[in-house]
Design a protein that fits this description.
By secondary structure, the protein is mainly beta. About 5% of the residues lie in helices and about 65% in strands. The protein starts with a helix and ends in a 19-residue tail after the last strand.
Length: about 800
Amino acid sequence: MMRKIVVLFIYLFSIVGLSQGLEIKGKVVDTENKPVAFANIVVSDGTNTSGYKGTISNETGDFEIGNLKTNKYTLNVSFLGYKTQAIEVQLDKSVSLDDIILEDEQQELDGVLIVVKKPTVKRMVDRLVFNVENSTLSNNNMLDVLKHTPGVMVNNDGISVKHASPTIYINDRKVHLSTTEVIQLLESMPANNIKAIEVITSPPSKYEAEGGAVLNFVTSKNLVSGYNGSVFGNFKQGFEFPKYSVGTSHFFKGEKIDAYINYNVSPRKDFRNTDEFINFIDNEETTSSWETDYNRTRKSANQNINSNIDYTIDDKNTLSFSANLMFLPKSGTETDINSLTEVYGATGVLDSTFNTINAAVDKTTNAAFTLDYVHKLNQEDEQLSFSAHHTNFSFDSDQDVNTEYLFPDQSLIRNNEFESLSSQDIKLYTGQVDYELPISETAFLEAGGKASFINSESVINRFFIDNGSREEDLENSDTFLYDETNLALYGSYSKDWEHWSLKAGLRTEYTNIEGNSLSTNQINNSDYIKFFPTFHILNVLNENNEIYFTYNKRIYRPRYSQLNPFKFFLSDNSYNTGDPNLKPQIDDNFILGYTFNSKYTFELYYRNENDPSIQITFQDNDSKLLKNVDTNIDRSISYGLDFTTFTPVISNWDLYVYSSLFYYENRFAALESNNQLYTTDKWSVYLQMVNYFSFLKDKTLTADVSLIYISPLVDGPSEISNRTGLDISVRKTFWNNRASLTMGITDIFNTQNFTQTTKYLNQDILLNSRMENRMFTLGFNYKFGNFRLKTNKKDIESIERDRL
């Protein structure tokens, strides 16, 4: 099949010689006499590659190939899932062939009838490759495929690899969106153009040193020019509010230009209820207890536009322009929090109550533009590429908080009201160059450099409201300026032998930071050089056994909001604050793995986190305040054993299992207890099992049954209770795979809610969280045009955007 596509490409871009204008016409049908649309037809004279011509059948199965000479030709007709037909034609004049009948491609394996290709898993020296092209999974969307990818967990909280959020790439171009936006994007993109998903738990030096694992979606290429598109819609109904998502994608491929655009909008309302219990302690005695009932409703309507244009200048030069735009308009973005707090004294008698209403309106604009240039050099696969990128991010929020304090008999004590106006503007500029050189058939060299420049301005103005008049709270108003320069160089070398594979590299990054708080005139400067080595080695012991080892060093730079020192009050009694002196977190990661029979993988891993930065909630027992503080903790370590398998059970039933037994330890300074060091640690278990079934002869009816279990685990100073979730989804495709309808229920038994306990020294906080986890889901997707074309979807590669 690949050879036919290659020669078809050569034909389409070669100079056609003189022709006598003869043509071959025909029609492609299946054994039930139904037309086979978009079958590949390649004709050759069997002498040289320049003699190849090709086309595809239209929606009625008809095709024609013109500009042929008098000659003897071989006509090869192929389509996924069917046997290839080879027909000899002696062409002396234009001919119309009888119907060409394609038979199902079938193989008998131990009594199991295989009609379509199964997804496969391949271990490479630096990554795991989950091949899904032309498999049953390719009928789903990209998020559905990700749910079945070994080593990846997808649930309502987002996407995780090795218990941390991964970085998403498409064709080695980074997706710069929030977790929620990434999920919406993947739901909107059909998987029929996905060739493979690469799970890179220890990214090599070519990738940014920032962040953890990388998930890279690799799309297929198609050589046939034309247009395709799709429209989709999703509906989810929780116990409170419905959520919607609609969008459309369009792709055009011409001789010189490939163009892609995707637009989606997600109007939705989300509800969350939290019960909070706080015991304020003095000299190991409870002096006061607060019980709060929070109800939060968030309304939003994210709008995303992703587009890309590739222009092929000639065989050696390609120019690309990408744009990613995200809008969250103020008119559709509202957050309302209503809370009732009951205050009890030391004897357990009700002292007072207070009601808080927090109404906020937000607006976000995130515009990113990238220009890429790729020049292929003389040696095969040798190339030089350049990239320039700019991001303009702006965020505005208006928050009004009104608190009414009451005696137990509900008579008024006092009323407090304040308003916060906050904004953040960030500008990011990056330039990058990469060089790739195949030294030999088994050795490869990569090198490159990158420069990034970031300017950020954060403003908050807080006002007291008294009888309608506003008075600025100068103590809690500020402007914070942040500038960062990052310069990076990298190089890597890979080599394959008969049974061994090696890849090693080094990335060096220089960072200079300046933070300036205008209200306090506090300026913080820091600069550092860090080295990030990577090492991967793989040994194929025999046909059924592989062993591998990886090591890499990663960095997690503080987000800009974490460096902002001023206080952002959420209510009279709680606020968020950052620290301009936060250090970057540096991780050392070690993995020792073993794969048996290409299906069963065991991994021992160890991760040491140096200067980890997290947000910790501290209760001030004297002032009765909750402080959400971004801070570096002393250390974090984790290690464990992971197991994954992706294997068929019977012909129509495949099983995916991912389990992890791991230990996690955090040691931090208790800020409200004289900075006394305190340690939390726990052994925990992750388990995910996905069964997916296919029905009917043509496998157009599928069902997924997914179970997830997370045992109690620690997160900083807190322990989170266990969670369990069972999801069922049924999918039916119609109209020759052009349309699909999906229905399902997530978290059937509503068991994914959790409690969070923070109890140590003089801290005692308990949270009960209840969200809209159980939902009825309904989705529809329709593809039109030559939908077998593949997208040239690209996303920009500027890791700093994650920190917006």
